[in-house]
Specification:
Structural class: alpha+beta
Main location: nucleus
Radius of gyration: 21 Å
Shape: elongated
Subcellular location: Nucleus
CATH architecture of the largest domain: Box
Largest sheet: 9 strands, antiparallel
Pfam families: Hus1 (PF04005)
Organism: Pogona vitticeps
Keywords: Nucleus
Oligomer: single chain
Length: 286
């Protein structure tokens, strides 16, 4: 089992750092899945049991100048590691002006991701700062616990407003309640609501747009979500801190951000970028 990778391009390094920083805000520990083509950061708490889940997918060719790996066996050419993303984030903070960053799976009394940061120097030789980040190797028999989450058929999908604006609104609402209701319809309208015994506050967003998803029925006929009732609202009440974790923690400036709502069951927030995608599942409160 081997893994080594190298980033030279400073733009790729900065973007990779932003992704890691975002993941670190969402999960204290998570699973890093390595394949030949992609990296995945996975948080697989069971949504049905009240936990959040995360699925972050990166194409390695968009970030790494060199990427080599050998899995546990030829037929299972993958590696699953338990990592603390905050430790990886801290290591990458020393690499802001790096000439190159190498990441390697090593064994130093325990399995480690060794991050070697090559920094510029006034002399002819470079300075190397090395970080050994302990990781846990997840055995093959447990890999099925880390498959991509199944998303129930959602009732509404809507593009999010500007995330900085949404963050500002939710931060103010956090002082009033521990929960928030997100409701939306197929007419591009979304509301954020706080409801307590003392106060009811609602922020309205309009003309956000709905992604052109197409649903396929059991009979095989295709029906656009736009053919259904567009005015009626679908809602889910969630923990406001969970929502704020993503809004306050994301540093990746997605090209698209959207929200899928399963009525009274869960919401799925999706950040899309040409280099990666991130799905964040928050269960509804009873």
């Amino acid at each position: 089992m081997r893994f080594r990778a190298k980033i030279v391009d400073i733009g790729c390094l900065n973007q990779f750092t932003r992704v890691i920083n975002t993941v670190a805000k969402l999960a204290k520990t998570c699973t890093l899945r390595l394949t030949v083509d992609k990296l995945y950061f996975i948080l697989s708490d069971k949504v049905a049991n009240g936990g959040v889940s995360m699925w972050c997918e990166l194409k390695q060719e968009n970030f790494f100048d060199e990427f080599q790996m050998e899995g546990v066996a030829a037929e299972n050419n993958e590696i699953y590691l338990e990592v603390t993303p905050e430790n990886l984030s801290r290591a990458l903070k020393t690499a802001q002006n790096a000439k190159a960053v190498k990441i390697k799976l090593t064994n130093k009394q325990c399995p480690c991701l060794t991050v070697a940061v090559e920094l510029p120097s006034l002399s002819s030789s470079s300075r190397i700062v090395t970080h050994d980040i302990p990781v846990g190797v997840i055995p093959r028999k447990l890999w099925n616990d880390f498959i991509e989450p199944n998303v129930p058929e959602f009732d509404v999908s809507i593009f999010l407003p500007v995330m900085k604006t949404m963050k500002s609104v939710v931060e103010r609402m956090k002082n009033l309640s521990n929960s928030i209701v997100i409701e939306a319809n197929k007419n591009g309208e979304m509301n954020l609501k706080i409801e307590t015994d003392l106060v009811c506050v609602t922020t309205h967003f309009k003309e956000l747009g709905n992604p052109p998803w197409v649903l396929v029925s059991e009979e095989g006929s295709q029906n656009s979500t736009q053919d259904r009732d567009t005015e009626s609202m679908v809602e889910a009440r969630i923990d406001i801190k969970r929502l704020l974790q993503l809004l306050a923690g994301q540093q990746v400036n997605p090209t698209k951000a959207l929200c899928n709502i399963v009525s009274k069951k869960m919401i799925c927030l999706i950040l899309l970028h040409e280099d990666f995608s991130l799905q964040y599942f928050i269960p509804a409160l009873a």
